[in-house]
Design brief:
Blueprint: E1 2-6, E2 19-23, E3 34-42, H1 45-51, E4 58-59, E5 64-71, E6 81-84, E7 91-94, E8 113-114, H2 132-145, E9 152-156, H3 161-172, E10 176-181, H4 184-193, E11 198-201, H5 207-214, E12 219-224, H6 228-235, E13 238-246, H7 265-271, E14 274-277, H8 287-299, E15 307-311, H9 316-325, E16 331-335
Helix pairs in contact: 2-3, 2-8
Bound molecules: NADPH dihydro-nicotinamide-adenine-dinucleotide phosphate.
C-alpha cells in the first residue's frame, strides 16, 4: 500500500518536494473491518488550508471512492464501493463508521459509507456534484443567497467544482448569472455549454467594468469562492438587500502576505446587505435532498458536469498543485 505524507510545511504554492510517497504496511483485518482500494481521489482547495495546521510527516487529507477487496463485515461485501475520508492512500483498512485519519473526529457515521447506485453516471461524481462540492453549491446558494426568479447572481471560481454548479442551479431558478473565471476556455465552457448569461476572465478584464455592463441595475446574490480584493469589488456592485454567501477565500490560500481589501462597511449600511459564511457540514442531515435533486437534474440534462482527471496515484501532488493554479475545468480528480 502507498500513501502521501507532506514532509515540509507549505510556503506559498505547494511544491512537489513538499510531498513524499511512502510504503505502508497494512494490518490484517479484524472483525467488522474492510480492506479498500482507492479508485478516484478528490483534489480540494480546503486541503491546502487545513494542512497548514497539521504537523509535518502526517498523511495528506482527502476523500476517495474505493472498492472493497476484503471484508470481515457482512454489510460491506467484497466488490462493492465505498466513499471514504481516508486521506491520500492507495489502500485502507477501516472499520466503517470510524475515522482512519489523525486529527479528525474519531467516530462518524459517514466514514466508509457504501456508495449509492449512480446508475449510468460515474462514481467519481461522489467527489463532485453528487458529494461535498455539490452540497456546498446547493445549500450555499439556495439557503443563504435564496435567489428568486429574475434576480442577478454572481459567482467566482465559476468554472470550478462548486462554482460551475452554483451558476447552473441559479439558471434553473430563473436568474441572470454572471461568472468570473481565470481563462478564456473556462469562460467559453460556462457560457456556451452551461448557459451562464455572462462569463468574464478576471485576469484580463476590469471587474467593475464587466459588472457595469452585465448588471447595470446591480447584483442581488454573490456566491463568493475567492475573497480578497476581487470580492470587495463585486460587493461594491450589490443592490439593496443583496445576499452574499461566503464559501471560500482561495485568493489567500497560497499567499504569504496578509490580503488587503477595500473597506465595505458603508456599502453594507447603505444597501442593507447580508453576508453569511458557510460550512457545508451544517446541512449534513439534508445531504440526501441535494443528492437526489442534483442527480435528477443531471438525468434530465438540466445540469452538465465536467471533470479534470489526472491519471495515476503517484500524480496526486501534481494534480493538487495544478488545482491551486487553476488548471482544472470542473472537478479536479485523480484516477488511480
Ligand atoms: P475549484 O474546482 O473551484 O478549484 C479552485 C479554483 O479556484 C481554480 O480552478 C481557480 O480557477 C480558482 N483560483 C485559484 N486561485 C485563485 C485566485 N487567487 N483568485 C481567484 N480564483 C482562484 O475548487 P472547489 O470548487 O472545490 O472550491 C471552490 C471554493 O469553495 C474554494 O475556495 C473552497 O475552499 C471553497 N469550499 C468551501 C466549502 C465550505 O464548506 N465552505 C466546501 C467546498 C469548497 P480560476 O482559473 O478561475 O482562477
Amino acid at each position: 500500500a502507498k500513501k502521501f505524507v507532506y514532509v515540509s510545511k507549505f510556503v506559498g504554492e505547494p511544491k512537489l518536494s513538499d510531498f513524499k510517497l511512502e510504503e505502508e504496511q497494512l494490518p490484517d483485518l479484524k472483525d467488522d473491518e474492510i480492506l479498500c482500494e482507492a479508485e478516484y481521489l478528490s483534489l480540494d482547495p480546503y486541503v491546502r488550508m487545513l494542512m497548514a495546521n497539521r504537523p509535518v510527516n502526517t498523511i495528506m487529507l482527502g476523500r476517495q471512492t474505493a472498492k472493497i477487496l476484503q471484508s470481515k463485515n457482512p454489510k460491506y461485501p467484497v466488490g462493492s464501493y465505498v466513499f471514504g475520508n481516508f486521506g491520500w492512500r492507495s489502500h485502507t483498512v477501516v472499520k466503517p463508521g470510524t475515522n482512519v485519519l489523525p486529527y479528525e473526529q474519531k467516530d462518524r457515521t459517514d466514514i466508509a459509507n457504501l456508495l449509492p447506485d449512480f446508475g449510468n453516471l460515474p462514481r467519481s461524481l461522489a467527489l463532485g456534484y453528487l458529494g461535498m462540492p455539490g452540497h456546498t453549491a446547493y445549500f450555499g446558494l439556495l439557503d443563504i443567497c435564496k435567489p428568486t426568479k429574475g434576480e442577478v447572481v454572481v459567482v467566482t471560481a465559476a468554472a470550478g467544482a462548486v462554482g460551475s454548479l452554483v451558476g447552473q442551479i441559479a439558471k434553473i431558478k430563473g436568474c441572470t448569472v454572471i461568472g468570473f473565471a481565470g481563462s478564456e476556455e473556462k469562460c467559453k465552457w460556462i457560457k456556451e455549454d452551461l448557459g451562464f448569461d455572462f462569463a468574464f476572465n478576471y485576469k484580463t478584464n476590469d471587474i467593475s467594468a464587466c459588472l457595469k455592463k452585465s448588471a447595470p441595475g446591480g447584483i442581488d446574490c454573490y456566491f463568493d469562492n475567492v475573497g480578497g480584493e476581487m470580492s470587495s469589488t463585486i460587493i461594491a456592485h450589490m443592490r439593496r438587500h443583496g445576499r452574499i454567501a461566503v464559501c471560500g477565500s482561495i485568493c489567500a490560500y497560497n499567499s504569504t502576505e496578509p490580503v488587503k481589501a477595500p473597506m465595505l462597511q458603508r456599502m453594507f449600511i447603505n444597501n442593507e446587505l447580508k453576508m453569511e459564511g458557510l460550512l457545508v457540514y451544517r446541512w449534513t442531515d439534508r445531504y440526501s435532498e441535494s443528492f437526489n435533486q442534483i442527480f435528477q437534474w443531471i438525468q434530465e440534462g438540466k445540469i452538465k458536469y465536467r471533470e479534470t482527471i489526472t491519471k495515476g496515484f503517484e500524480n496526486m501532488p501534481k494534480g493538487f498543485i495544478e488545482l491551486l493554479k487553476g488548471v482544472n475545468l470542473g472537478k479536479a480528480i485523480v484516477q488511480v
